[in-house]
Specification:
CATH class: Alpha Beta
Number of helices: 6
Largest sheet: 5 strands, mixed, barrel
Low-confidence stretches: 1-10
CATH superfamily: Fe-S hydro-lyase, tartrate dehydratase beta-type, catalytic domain
Distance between the termini: 46 Å
Number of strands: 7
Mean pLDDT: 88
Shape: globular
Radius of gyration: 17 Å
CATH topology: fumarase
Number of domains: 1
Order of helices and strands: EHEHEHEHEHEEH
Structural class: alpha/beta
Length: 205
C-alpha cells in the first residue's frame, strides 16, 4: 500500500470556491460585523493556536494583569493541537478540536478584543452573547480533514507555553484556509438554522 506524505496532498484551489469572500488578517471588528452566518471564506495571514490548557493560562494571565503572548485585539484563534510535523512539512495534521472546551474562557478573550475563533461544534449561550456584544465571529473548519488543512499553513512557530507540547500556542501563517461562518456577530447560528431548514424541508414533502 502506498504511503502518502502531507506534501503529496494538493493545496486547496480557489477555483472550487468561486463565490466566497477572501479575508486577510488582522481581522478587524468591521470585518467581523460584515460577515453573515453561512458564508464561506478563504482566510490568509497570521492566526494563533490555543486549546483549553492554553486558554486557562491566558485567562489567568489576564486576571493577574500580566502581558499576553500575542495581541488579542483583532486576532483569530484556531482551536487546534497539531500532530508532530513530518520531515519536509511545516506542521502535522491540523484539524479543529471541539470548541465547547474553550467556552469557559472565550467571553473574556472576546471582551479583550478577540474577533475570530475557528473550531467545530456548538458554542454556549454565554459565548454567543459576548460575540453579539463585542463583535466576534465563530468559524467552522472542516472536521476530519486535518492533513488537508495543514496544507494551508505556510509557517508555524511556537510562541508560548512550550511545555504544553501539542497544545502550546503557535503563530501560524495561513493561505486560503477554507472556513464557514457558523455564528455571526448578530448571533445567527448555522447549527440552529441548518436544523430548522432541514425540518422545514421534510415537513414540506
Amino acid at each position: 500500500m502506498k504511503t502518502y506524505k502531507y506534501q503529496d496532498i494538493p493545496r486547496i484551489s480557489k477555483e472550487i470556491f468561486r463565490s466566497v469572500r477572501t479575508l486577510v488578517t488582522p481581522f478587524t471588528n468591521e470585518n467581523a460585523r460584515s460577515l453573515r452566518c453561512g458564508e464561506t471564506v478563504l482566510l490568509s495571514g497570521e492566526i494563533y493556536t490555543a486549546r483549553d490548557a492554553a486558554h486557562a493560562r491566558l485567562a489567568e494571565a489576564i486576571r493577574q494583569d500580566e502581558p499576553l503572548p500575542f495581541r488579542v485585539e483583532n486576532a483569530i484563534v484556531y482551536y487546534v493541537g497539531p500532530t508532530p510535523s513530518m520531515p519536509g512539512s511545516v506542521i502535522g495534521s491540523a484539524g479543529p478540536t471541539t470548541s465547547y472546551r474553550m467556552d469557559a474562557f472565550a467571553p473574556l478573550l472576546i471582551k479583550m478584543g478577540l474577533t475570530g475563533m475557528i473550531g467545530k461544534g456548538e458554542r454556549s449561550p454565554e459565548v454567543i452573547s459576548a460575540m453579539k456584544e463585542h463583535g466576534a465571529v465563530y468559524f467552522g473548519a472542516i472536521g476530519g480533514a486535518g492533513a488537508l488543512l495543514a496544507r494551508c499553513v505556510e509557517s508555524s512557530e511556537v510562541i508560548a507555553y512550550e511545555d504544553l507540547e501539542a497544545e502550546a500556542i503557535r503563530k501560524l501563517t495561513v493561505k486560503d484556509m477554507p472556513l464557514t461562518v457558523v455564528i455571526d456577530c448578530k448571533g445567527n447560528d448555522l447549527y440552529t438554522k441548518g436544523r430548522a431548514e432541514y425540518l422545514q424541508s421534510t415537513n414540506n414533502k
